[in-house]
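Could you help me review a protein record that somebody else here produced? Do not assume that whoever made the record got everything right. The record follows directly below this note.
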Amino acid sequence: MDQSQSGTNGIGQRLRELRQKRGLNQQDLASADISVSYVSLIETGKRIPSEAVLKTLAERVGCSVDYLRSGRDDRRVKELELKIAFGDMALRNGANGEALQSFSEALAHAPLLGEAAVRRARLGQATAFEKLGRMEAAIQLYSTLFDDPAVVPGSAEWAQLAVALCRSYRDAGDYTLSVEIGERAMKTLDGLGLDYTDDHIQLGSTLISCYQNRGDLTQAQLLINRLTRVADENGSRTARGAVYWNAAMVANTRGKFQESLAMIERALALMAESDNARHLALLKLNCGNYLLDTGTTDLGKVQKLLDEAREGLLESGNSTDQVHVDGQQARLALHQGDPDRAADLASRALGLLRNESTHTAGQIRLFLAQAQYERGDPKEAEETLHALVRQLGRVATNRNLAVVWRQVGDLWRQLGHPGEALAAYDRALGEAGLQPLDKLAHAAVTTV
């Protein structure tokens, strides 16, 4: 019986696509009961195969009879949806590599999935890339999802993606673009005239951290003042905790250590009942860090906080989180008078960083140099500082870097190298935005 391709409901087209995808020719599908010419007629839509022929052909191209007949394979679809669900669960449990594999395997069969399932898998894949520290891949996927016309500005999905993009550019070190994305998204929400939601507050909280990293402390404080009022009136405990968390970081950057400690403790209290184990662990890590900033003598409390942070992040964190834990543990060991342990912890953290050039890597290398000096190895400390100076020269300018340069200068001075110390102090002033006298004089002449 002659039939058009549409009359066969796409059987021939699907058969041809699967055969070609698997590198088979029509002869490979033929058998004693199915001639090559009959295969050709089926593929061109001129014959409708019987159930027995359909079963044979499906086996040879590696699909189900249901898929060959209708383009859907409910059994296979359910298997793929289970892979996506497993990926979501793996992300929650900190098994980011397993999550990425599950999402990628599901997306390899994207044509079998509905649009919502595909978007869910792609978001999961992007999140896994981010947690694994593969920021370029994460940003590319988040951008594709965010720019999809199906994503409605102001919706929960849109806000979630805006936060993810803002956060990812920040963590990749592109503070300017992270701020631009955050400001644009906040302006869009304000223009829509929507009531503040937790998503809105979370976006603002992320933008605060971007301002802080870029050194825009005034802008950060203005947004803190605005969000604190809104969060206290309308936000959930988690949303309020996020605002106080970022407010604590800004206060710490301003040198208001007691204020930053009070805010981080308030954030921890607000988010104590949260089911986000990673956030709770990071809050404890920050709380321990800020306690050290205040000059506390209660090092046992700091140790307890950092140990709890380590335990939580081993289960739910990523490699970057482990670096921060090891770094703060090394700092604590220096306060405890144990330079050998500090050196071991700093070396382990640097091993996880794999020669990355960031202010975090610089800070940890500084802890290592300090530990080497305190245990009586000044030559090792000098070599580590020289390596640190070369490393810091490759880091993009930001306020956090100024702090590291200042501390580098202090250690050079302890080692008896005033010239190197002066050069480091000069770099610290430059990173903080203070220009040398000759440039200031030139600027004054040109602006008259």
About this structure: The domain at 346-448 is CATH 1.25.40 (Serine Threonine Protein Phosphatase 5, Tetratricopeptide repeat).
